[in-house]
Design goal:
Blueprint: H1 2-12, E1 17-24, H2 36-48, E2 52-60, H3 72-85, E3 89-92, H4 98-108, E4 111-114, H5 115-126, H6 130-144, H7 148-151, H8 153-158, H9 172-211, E5 216-221, H10 227-235, E6 252-259, E7 262-268, H11 278-283, H12 285-293, E8 296-302, H13 308-321, E9 329-334, E10 350-352, H14 361-372, E11 377-383, H15 389-397, E12 399-405, E13 409-415, H16 417-423
Parallel strand pairs: 1-2, 1-3, 3-4, 5-7, 5-8, 8-9, 9-10
Antiparallel strand pairs: 6-7, 11-13, 12-13
Helix pairs in contact: 2-5, 5-6, 6-9, 15-16
Length: 439
Amino acid sequence: MREQTTTTAEIEKPRDIAILVGLSSPRLEAKDNADEESMEELEALVETAGGEAAASVLQNRASPDPRTFIGEGKVAEIKELVKNEEATMVIFDNDLSPSQLRVLTEEFGVQVLDRSALILDIFAQRARTREGRLQVELAQYQYLLPRLTGMWTHLERQAGTSGKGPIGSKGPGETQLETDRRHIHRKIDKLKEELEEVRRIRGTQRQRRMKNEIPVVAIVGYTNAGKSTLLNALTGADIPANNRLFDTLDTTSRLLTVSDTMEVVISDTVGFIRKLPHQLVDAFKATLEELEYADLLLHVIDISNPHWQEQAQIVDSLIAELGAEQTPCLRVYNKSDLFWGDIRPHGEDTVNISAKTGEGLDELLRAIDRTLDKGTRQVTLHLPYDKGGLLDMLYREARVESVEYAETIDVVAVCNPKAIGVVKPYIEGWVEPKEPWEE
């Protein structure tokens, strides 16, 4: 019995106990500064990674210390915290240079990570598909490459030279460093090739969809806004939808019937976050390139979050960076059941929903239908047998739902305006729409 208790305790034990550190300085760019909100987000990231935050230290300083980033006094304070809390790592909300990482690791005697490294760790844990894993691996190597110099300094020191001495005096550190650099460059090139192949296959699938004229809708939004819950609610897809950051890392696509005349392919994408490591923005363009080819974006915003406006702005700027700002976009304000403000956001391209309770989903479907409607109509046709060739055209240009052979060939099909123009003499009850000036 006792053994069993121990096992349970071990299972529940967090991977790591972390001290969180952030620095705010006028010398840093606004986006690189730490504040209370970004520290809260860092704590949520640590929990997502399976760790636990024991303490949080936010420091204001005129300028970052070149050697330790936070200054000797703060280093001593955090060293004491590590000891008292029995912490296994220190995690910074800011990005650190390779030499700062090395110095701080020596000072604290435990592992030191910056925000980018933590996000990479979460991505490595979460990625499931081959594409997702390739992207994470590529991002990890791109993150590692500039940090090699700092990591190998101890070997350069052993060699008695910084690598700038006379010929023949270079130490093993330099040799090892160059070997590692070459190895990592080779790995990066190989991963890029494999990703290109994945993209090529996806491009072929996309062309097939475009040929069938099935519109593509991409769900985007800040991490933890409820994108997967929305996809589940709309399509019954069984995607894990948990209240934690970065739960979806691989694009999931499903077919969704929006109305009698419209079906769409709807895709869930990786969540955006402030201070996303640039290696990840580059590596994940393969997943996010769906946005570029989407006919419609659903920008899901967690309206229950007090910082939703800032989060929405971060997503908008990343959409622009990915070249998708011209794509039509519906702003979907999710978690409306938890919104306590006086007036909900409203406007032409705005829908308030609760993916959890189902509130507003019908209105969202109508908004999708309205935005993507290109004059497609479901019609019943009675084709004379000598016009049977038109049936082949309908199979190519429209979505044929049923065909019956009676006195005429009776066809029910969903047609675009081009197909309607060809077959309108045979459409049951067809009335030529009036031009606006005729009404």
